User: What shape does this take?
Amino acid sequence: MKKIIFYFYPIVLIFLISSCAHLDSNLYNNKKITEYKLDNYTDVNDFNLDSTYRIQDSLIHVFTLQSKTNSESSSTKIYAIYIGKITSINTDTVIMYCHGNKWHMDFYWQRAKLLANIGGKNNYGVLMIDYRGYGLSEGNPSEDGMYADVDAGLQWLKMNGLTDNRLVIYGFSLGSSSACELTANPRSLTPSKVILEAPFASTAVMVQDGSQLSMPSSFFTNAKIDNAEEIKKINQPLMWIHGTNDLFLNINTHGQVVFNNHKGLYKEAYKITGADHGEIPPKLGYNNYMEAIKLFIRK
Amino acid sequence: MIFSCTPSRIVRPLEKGNKLITAHLGGPLIGFAETTIPIQFTSVMYAQGVSDKLTAFESLHTTSLFFGVFQTDIGVCYKMYYNDKLKLGISATPSLNIAFDKWESNLKIWPLLDVNAYWEITQKKSFFYAGVNNWFELANNKAHEQVQVNNWFINPQLGFNYVRKKWNYNIETKYLAPTIKNEPNVVDYRGINGYGALGIYLGFTRTF
Assistant: This one.
């Protein structure tokens, strides 16, 4: 008996204390930087726009927000960029852009510029934030933290006069989780429309795609991201865009499941032939991409 | 594909009463930080010869354990055929892979069946082997009411066991899920012509 206890004790001990070792931190592809370079950013990018999409300096506002989850006792400083006139937020339509998993806002700056130029030069306001741990934002990435960070952005918009009916939330890839969560379970504002570009269905699908088995996601991650379930609570109009050649998030196991589960009155799908993850705007064509979003927002 | 975290557990049954402990390391090849690496799964295994034809074994997946998942293989290796003249044998290794996590108390059990042919090449009985590892997924559904399309995964494998007096060394390569496309997938598996994933595994064995 003593022998059994001797052998099993370390196993049980490791099993019990292993809470400090989970793969979640490896899920986040954040990168720290020393400054935001925006148009002067020269590192790897999905695409670069020409000067016709340039945003005048007076309409670019880089600032910080304080974000706090329900379980935290202190706030985390995160960075945000607003494109547009802050004084016009009380009348403008604003797109809350929830970026993907890669690095920081510099990487997504070109995308934010496209959104700002939909329907005319600087037509819509666009707010983008770096989740905690990304870019210059302090702290470490977490699922709860990510939702709190986007909501901190929404609080800022509300404080500046934005109302639910003029808020459109846009989630790209990882950002689809914040877009779905904060629309299904609204906090500061309730988005009037939802746009999901290359969304993922859930952490369960990610694990099952990776393993090819019907494996519980809890074997790999504590993240409870479940867009395929959250979308069932969303009645707002949905626009779904996904590349047919998305080699990272399978259009059939991820995006299509989310789209099918939306039970609202209106939804539209754009399956972009040949587009990989992150290739949708250039493959669809910038003008076509912007026109499709404009029509959806104005519908 | 990420499921196959070990090489073939026992290929040649032990003699009755013999025991061994093995440390295994390796996994499927993936693209990571612009290079190709094997996922570093680790496990330890204890095996004992029940008879000259039958060896029982149990393993503990140490990487999984470190991340809060108790995972084990329990099984036996049975010598089905042996030709003294050719030094050639065939074995079958049915086992169960059992995993239980402390986070949500999820439990999964997967049956496995390895069938290997081995060929002893030295007096100390080092041997080459070739065979197939079969994984069976019993569930018919996946998350969000999606259908589990593949329930049987056939993974060919090839290995060499270098036998010394007390220590044995094993290297094995496996072609995981060779009939399944490895893209699109959140994991950047490295297979052949876009199918499956190649795995590389090492084993370090102490016999008693």
